[in-house]
Specification:
Strand order of the largest sheet: 2-1-3-4
Distance between the termini: 28 Å
CATH class: Alpha Beta
Oligomer: single chain
Number of helices: 4
CATH architecture: 3-Layer(aba) Sandwich
Strand content: 5-15%
CATH topology: Oxidized Rhodanese, domain 1
Number of strands: 4
Mean pLDDT: 93
Low-confidence stretches: none
Radius of gyration: 12 Å
C-alpha cells in the first residue's frame, strides 16, 4: 500500500460508528467522476491533487478519515497530511469495500 502513515480504520468500523450517530470527518480524495458516482454521505470531497493547496480547509484539531477507491491514494494523502500535522486515518479497501449508504452527485 502506498504511503507511510500511522492509523487505519476499516470500512466496517466507519459504517458502525456512523450508524451509532457519531460525527466523523470523512475526506474523500477521489476524482470528481468517482465522487459523483457515489460517496459516503456527509463526506467532504478534497481530491488528492488539491490537498497541497487546500489542506488549510481542514480542522487540525479534529481527526479525519481519508477515503479513496481502494486505499492507495488515501494512504498517500494520509502520509502528506500527517507530515503537515493532521490527525488522520486511512480507510483501507476504500469505497471498493464500503457496504454502507452512498450519496450520489455533488
Amino acid at each position: 500500500m502506498a504511503g507511510k502513515y500511522s492509523k487505519d480504520m476499516l470500512p466496517q468500523e466507519v459504517e458502525e460508528r456512523l450508524a451509532k450517530g457519531e460525527k466523523l470527518n470523512i475526506i474523500d480524495v477521489r476524482e470528481q467522476d468517482e465522487w459523483d458516482s457515489g460517496h459516503i454521505p456527509n463526506a467532504r470531497h478534497l481530491p488528492l491533487g488539491s490537498i497541497g493547496q487546500r489542506h488549510g480547509e481542514l480542522d487540525r484539531s479534529q481527526p479525519h478519515i481519508i477515503v479513496c477507491r481502494s486505499g492507495n491514494r488515501s494512504g498517500l494523502a494520509c502520509e502528506l497530511l500527517e507530515e503537515l500535522g493532521y490527525d488522520v486515518m486511512n480507510m483501507p479497501g476504500g469505497m471498493s469495500n464500503w457496504e454502507g449508504k452512498v450519496a450520489l452527485g455533488t
